[in-house]
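In these records, each integer encodes one residue's backbone shape. Here is one protein:

___
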Amino acid sequence: MWRDLKGMAEKARSRGIASLFGDGRAAAFSVNADGLLLDYSKTTINADARAALIALSETRGLPERREAMFTGEPINETEGRAVLHTALRNLAGRAIKVDGRDVMPGVLDTLARMKSFAGLVRSGAYRGAGGAFTDVVNIGIGGSHLGPEMAVRALAPYADGPRCHFVSNVDGADISDTLARLDPARTLILVASKTFTTTETMTNAATAHKWLLGAVADPGAHFVALSTAERKAAEWGIDASRVFGFEDWVGGRYSIWGPIGLSLMIAIGPDGFIDFLRGAEAMDLHFRDAPPTENMPVMLSLVGLWHSHACGYATRAVLPYDQRLGRLPAYLQQLEMESNGKGVALGGRSLGYASGPVVWGEPGTNGQHAFYQLIHQGTAVVPCEFLVAARGHEPDLAHQHALLVANCLAQSEALMQGRDLETARELMRNAGYRGAELERQARHRVFPGARPSTTLMYDLLTPFRLGQIIALYEHRVFVEGVILGINSFDQWGVELGKELAKALQPVLDGTVPLDEKDGSTRQLITFVQSKRG
């Protein structure tokens, strides 16, 4: 099947993209879903390629695998777990059973507790030693950091609660710089670690505890645990009423919808957070019910696989023309690369072909003055995924938003159309160049064109829309994983480095000899020790 798709991609490459446009292509190669528009017409996919991609997804068992996920079957097969982040936004409360037990009463009870606590913090009824909390610091790493940080920044226009800050790096500069500008007596610390043992998170939490200890009588009252480890949280002086747990069928990078999203709920309020969940729930229903050509997550994933596996493009650029989505590319890096960056198929054999692409990006228009040069004229083709709202939150700056949208649309048009040599010659001729210099200057102004892009458009970045967008990308990752035949929900690749780091710490401290380490590691450790004195 991949061989056939690669043959189709090669033929499509020779045709280009602009030549495909005729009456109705834009509408025929777009998907609408509850106010979102995904336009993938500026790609080389035609009707035959789309049909082949859909057939591939069905051959790989996508409909069955999707139903298994939504109904709580243990599709995370290497860990024997269900994959039910969708249950966290199942606001209708439809029964979902894991091992014969309906998980929804527990999910809804935790959500109710979160709403109650967030309301107390926002109103000042639950306060710190110095009065109502003015600041909240979320300490986590990976999904327990990237998700809430991205969402809080994205929904800044709706934030009317305490200011939220985010610490993840074990580098002491991160927490030091964050705490330096805060009042400990009016700061609430959220510790996001399911087991309350994550090294980086608990190291930063200990630093925050020490910071509070010098300023307040009861540091534990300033802490909240986003964790299932109630006993360990109690050792920190955190009352059970401030411990919000979640099940092992919620992976870290899929956890923004539950207790890990508490900072977002405190920032924008419980009602805003519920709208956020409603957006994701709407995308879940759409993904579960819509036929393939009208199914946004399915088509977004098939476009991605067309580019990465049929066309052979190794990277994917996510380019939000929305400053408040500035952390979305980093969020999607983790979501996609930790999920689908695998080399082993479900059955345990080597994959035998590329897994997920490298995901990267920056907001427009900043990226235009940075790396777009490579995207337009470099030798590597980089499929681009643009995101843009029809309007912004600043009505008095509507002219600036119009300029932003114009830039976004111009970039996708330029990537598709390019500029041929004859047009470049005419431009240089009009600029006064002649002879060999005209030819030289013209060649520098040629754009290959036929470079693919998709555009996701929406009216305004609201909590509902953000919920839709994140759920869209979650399901995209799932679909790609099913078709690639891998488990998108484990992450064994992060473990080895953590194990080695734990073993290296006493070596760096000089309490364990470094004889058994390789020459390079010994040299680097010796250098560090010499500079530490």
Notes: The longest strand covers residues 315-321. Residues 270 and 462 are 14 Å apart (CA to CA).
